[in-house]
Amino acid sequence: MSLRFDVDAVVLDIEGTTSATGFVVDVLYPYSRARFGELLTRRADEPEVARAVAQVRELTGDHTADAAAVEKTLGTWLDEDRKATPLKTLQGIIWSEGFARGDLVSHFYDDVVPALRAWRAAGLRLYVYSSGSVAAQRAWFSSTPEGDLLSLVAGLYDTENAGPKQEPESYRRIAESAGLAPGRLLFLSDRPGELDAARAAGWHTVGVRRPGEPYYEQGVGDHAQAGTFDEISVNTSGSTA
Question: Residue 72's domain spans which residues?
Fold first, then answer.
């Protein structure tokens, strides 16, 4: 049974929705963990690195934390899978460079890319809203097994430019930025707290439930749900995809 929506844009979560959380945890997390130390010591004067370090110090309350202390905090946050903005910023720097070097190639579930291409061809706008930084998102969509898919995406949002993913105000901010009424947006995510926040902001929502993902057993509450993107049909301006 297909879920049908009349909207102008689809906003995508990444982990557990378009892509396997296991790939992020088992491949990307260790890749960044092994490189935090060098980034924090050799490139501490770079504005983006310095800003993230200042944010770590602010969040921990340790305003004199040195590179080793900051690295330890980042490692702890990784272990906790904490969606802290400075962690995501520093990961984004490392991952972007890894993708650019060819060390990394992103992962997408088989049903995702064909659906994104079909929706885009039908006139839908596609956006990404992930806890991963905009830099990481850009690298993710630029370095896929099917080549550079960044042209499919109209905009990228993270916890820095939109806000926390479980707060309705973040979704209102995205709608305003995209120039769309909330009721013309569809959000796809595997996390019920995010879906609740999007719906509270007036969006349509679908919980994506893929076997093996962390939130599969928990479910998505009373949101519409789909096992693959093939189960979602989107209509805009009289066209159906």
Answer: 25-101
